[in-house]
Amino acid sequence: KQEVTQIPAALSVPEGENLVLNCSFTDSAIYNLQWFRQDPGKGLTSLLLIQSSQREQTSGRLNASLDKSSGRSTLYIAASQPGDSATYLCAAPYNTDKLIFGTGTRLQVFP
Amino acid sequence: DTGVSQNPRHKITKRGQNVTFRCDPISEHNRLYWYRQTLGQGPEFLTYFQNEAQLEKSRLLSDRFSAERPKGSFSTLEIQRTEQGDSAMYLCASSLVVYGGDTEAFFGQGTRLTVV
Is the CB of A30 inside 8 Å of chain B's CB atoms? Predict the structure, then answer.
């Protein structure tokens, strides 16, 4: 059974800081892992998809790493901005392709 | 292509009524998923389709819930005899699955259901 845990549950930082969001999963037999952003009352926006053959994936100020052996993924946000304020969710596939989500990290970046 | 589209965005209904939600996936995506999300939690898997075939249903999907994808394009999720515990955000996602390919899931904006 796949279980996904995200730490921290909430984070409040001043603008400009570099951030680390952590995700751990129990079933390491995954072929990818996906990070999403969710604004309040909205759907999910896909940020990064890391293939199992990769160790890192980058998009702009975002960088995600994947370590299957330890069951961990990390999302780095460089030079955070108030517009980055949202909930960040990681999701690992289980069995077929259904995604198992963590409960998210709620990020607030203040000016 | 405008992405995954869900309608309605919001639905308020009285307990005991039936409701139906619609999802239009990204065109040519062969997989379509339904998830449910309650406040402060991550989305939970409900069911998914490969083309028009419903391949898996979660134990969360009681017999009051039914989903269809009749022509392998749009999908509907119906909840009969709604209960207050059904209040949640219902999210639809789609992906393109090809042999040996990675399956990035794209989500819609969700339908917020409130049962009063």
Answer: no
